[in-house]
Design goal:
Layout: E1 2-6, H1 10-21, E2 27-32, H2 37-46, H3 49-52, E3 57-62, E4 73-76, H4 92-109, E5 114-117, H5 122-133, E6 140-142, H6 145-160, E7 167-168, E8 171-173, E9 180-182, E10 188-189, E11 192-193, H7 200-211, H8 213-221, H9 227-241, E12 246-255, E13 261-272, E14 275-279, H10 286-303
Parallel strand pairs: 1-2, 1-4, 2-3, 4-5, 5-6
Antiparallel strand pairs: 7-10, 8-9, 10-11, 12-13, 13-14
Helix pairs in contact: 1-2, 1-9, 4-5, 5-10, 6-7, 6-9
This protein binds nicotinamide-adenine-dinucleotide and (2S)-2-hydroxybutanedioic acid.
């Protein structure tokens, strides 16, 4: 199985590293516009193989899309990340043009591929990739919910002082500081609702920390995060390539689901070899429905800024 990752920066290279290390694909192509950069990252990752024990071939190329031909999955991480104090939405001016041209270029060589969009503002970039390529909606997947849910589970595990792998939880809605919706009511510690162990105040703090999870790291690091984002993309790619049919919150095109139309936004999906194989209809309570509608309204407002590229 072949995966191309466009953008060999922090997130793209980390994603390539995790995919190789875990043997998720037999070949990974890293592509970047910076001369020699992807080649260097690929070589560095390949030189881990004998000491960590993987056999994935990692190839780096400078803007040569012919080397990406026949990719089963293409991950788009190209674009600029935010700096401390910025929102993801402020990146749209530069990233929209990049995501549009990259998604068109990859399809020339991999017409049957599934595209995973990572560049921010991710929900709007996913919508842009879908509209620009005209691909069927099951083949365009925005990655954000897998990361936000991982952060949610981390903060729950810290608040509960329990192992993170005993915690279940999902974040739906937009991938933005104010638009994501951590589903605290449905989160569990080995099947037991976390509300049995945490006060409303503690749960509210977990939700608030999750929502600004990316901003917190951006402030600490001076640029946005990459280890958990790269691992989250690899987790999603694994479910596609190995047809795992995991339920993962992803930004996907809605046509009536969750009361929304003509928008890409995070909802729980079954992810397998066909990409988005099902949108899972989780019964939300009135408060959650209201938050989802507000989140969708904010994402829709952002999508209006695409009128000059679409
Ligand atoms: N969806 C998420 O959960 C999530 C998580 C983390 C980061 N992000 C986003 O991912 C993007 C990348 O973040 P990063 O930290 O890796 O940034 P980075 O600056 O480290 O890497 C981006 C890379 O893209 C390359 N690039 C730019 N234009 C290109 C083009 N036209 N073709 C090929 N490559 C091109 C750059 O040369 C650079 O190497 C940002 O927009 C960031 O906001 C999203
Ligand atoms: O926070 C960011 O800007 C990057 C990414 O969306 C994240 O959540 O880490």
């Amino acid at each position: 199985m072949k995966v191309t990752i466009v953008g060999a920066g922090n997130v793209g290279a980390t994603c390539a590293d995790v995919i190789a290390y875990r043997g998720i694909a037999s070949e990974v192509v890293l592509l970047d516009i910076k001369e020699g950069f992807a080649e260097g990252k690929a070589l560095d990752i390949m030189q881990c193989a004998s000491n960590t024990g993987f056999n994935t071939r990692v190839v780096g190329v400078t803007n040569d899309y012919s080397k990406t031909a026949g990719s089963d999955v293409v991950v788009i991480t190209s674009g600029i990340p935010r700096k401390p104090g910025m929102t993801r939405e402020e990146l749209i001016g530069i990233n929209a043009g990049i995501v549009k041209s990259v998604s068109e270029s990859v399809l020339q060589y991999s017409p049957n591929t599934i595209i995973v969009v990572v560049s921010n503002p991710m929900d709007t970039m996913t919508y842009l990739a879908l509209k620009a390529t005209g691909l069927p909606k099951n083949r365009i997947i925005g990655m954000g919910g897998a990361l936000d849910s991982a952060r949610f589970k981390t903060y729950l595990s810290l608040a509960l002082d329990k192992p993170v792998n005993d915690i279940k939880g999902m974040v739906i809605g937009g991938h933005g500081d104010t638009t994501m919706i951590p589903l605290t009511r449905l989160a569990s510690y080995n099947g037991v609702p976390v509300s049995q162990f945490l006060t409303d105040e503690a749960l509210g703090q977990v939700a608030a920390d999750t929502m600004v999870g990316g901003a917190t790291l951006t402030k600490l690091l001076g640029t946005s995060a990459w280890y958990a984002p790269g691992a989250s993309v690899a987790y999603l790619v694994d479910s596609i390539l190995n047809d795992q049919k995991k339920m993962i919150p992803c930004s996907v095109f809605l046509e009536g689901e969750y009361g929304q139309d003509d928008i890409c936004i995070g909802v729980p999906c079954i992810i397998g070899k066909n990409g988005v194989e099902q949108i899972v209809d989780v019964e939300l309570n009135d408060g959650e429905k209201e938050l989802f509608a507000k989140s969708a309204a904010a994402v829709r407002t952002m999508n209006e800024a695409l009128s000059n590229v679409l």
